[in-house]
């Protein structure tokens, strides 16, 4: 992502969100890391529930769909669709855990999910 403000002049801050550290806080998720350019500045972004709603609303606008279709290959569109499917699966998983009362120890559940994502073949167990 590229960020710009008048205070930067013609410069842009380039942040690779995929490399961000994600930390769960009480009322928000915190993305933190180091700006890729123009200088290695540290950053923290607080993403609240309303921000997720705004992101998803923006994603469903006709302009967004047209932009993605016109500027993406079929492989890139499939990657986006796969990511959306994974997002929905994670939402369903955590909602089910919540409804069944299994989310009392959210930290343990988060750690187990992270381990499964990092090691999908579960090679550590065997």
SSE arrangement:
Layout: E1 2-3, E2 13-14, E3 21-24, E4 29-34, E5 42-47, H1 49-59, H2 62-71, H3 74-99, H4 106-118
Antiparallel strand pairs: 1-2, 3-4, 4-5
The main pleated sheet reads as:
3 strands, antiparallel
How many strand segments? 5
Trace the largest sheet across and list its strands: 3-4-5
User: Termini distance?
Assistant: 39 Å
The geometry reads as: globular
What integer is the average pLDDT? 83
Uncertain regions spanning at least 5 consecutive residues: none
- What is the N-to-C order of secondary-structure elements (H for helix, E for strand)? EEEEEHHHH
Structural class: alpha+beta
How much strand? Answer: 15-25%
In quaternary terms, these chains amount to single chain
Rg, Cα atoms, Å = 18 Å
Number of domains: 2
SS field, number of helical segments: 4
The residue fraction in helices comes out at: 40-55%
Description:
The protein is of the alpha+beta class and 126 residues long. The protein is 48% helix and 16% strand. It folds into two domains: 1-48, no CATH class; 61-126, no CATH class. It has four helices and five strands; from the N terminus they run βββββαααα. It has a three-stranded antiparallel beta sheet with strand order 3-4-5. Strands 1-2 form a two-stranded antiparallel ribbon. A hairpin with a 4-residue loop joins β3 and β4. The chain starts with a strand and ends in an 8-residue tail after the last helix. The model has no long low-confidence stretch (mean pLDDT 83).
